[in-house]
Amino acid sequence: MSITAKSIKILWSAAAGHCSFRGCPQRLCFHEAGDSAPFTLGEMAHIRGDKSDANRHDATQTQRERDDYINLILLCPTHHTLIDRKENEARFSVDVLHAMKSEHESAILARMGGARDLDRDNIFHQIFGLMTENFESWVRYGPQSELAMSHPHDTSAYAVWLSERLATIVPNNRTIAEAIRARRDVFRAEELKDVAKFLIHVRSYEMWVADEIEYAAVTRFPAEFEAMIRSGVDGGI
Asked: What residues of the chain score a pLDDT lower than 50?
């Protein structure tokens, strides 16, 4: 048994690609690596230890339970090492690690909820910025990017694209969707159809990333929504 692709995707997405250790700001995916290929640093640590001699090991757990998202926390290498030192077992108990994970993921969600006081112009600019970041991520690291096309059999190139989907695209989509739900009133009646198409796209895309549906079932990103947002940002409101 090993950690499933679904658990990996949920863990990276919920943590937004950052270390979940309390107070650690470490980003775990690096794209601007100079002459080196982009790389990831994130380590999926078991909260209840995987091996019988590991910290916090629970012999009553099944291997499936050990490798499930619920029993994992995303950490930088420094803090993964720290929590697994024998002398630190009491300090970093199961409850402490679950609390850290919950606090970090809650903070990510809270940052997505900051749109309630924004007006139409600010909402449109926020959405446009996040869509632009997602597009650049796809251009640089997606399946049709120069990186992917020049290294078609390189698993590390695919790993970077997987990380980008989990650490950038899914969190950005969630932020946009939350902003829309918080201030749906700023959209005109004739715009709501395109807004609905985008929200359906976001839900289906995240279901695919979580391995809940096939890629063929993902609704395509609505060009009409992008055109509407771009028009607002360019002053066409």
From this structure: 236-237
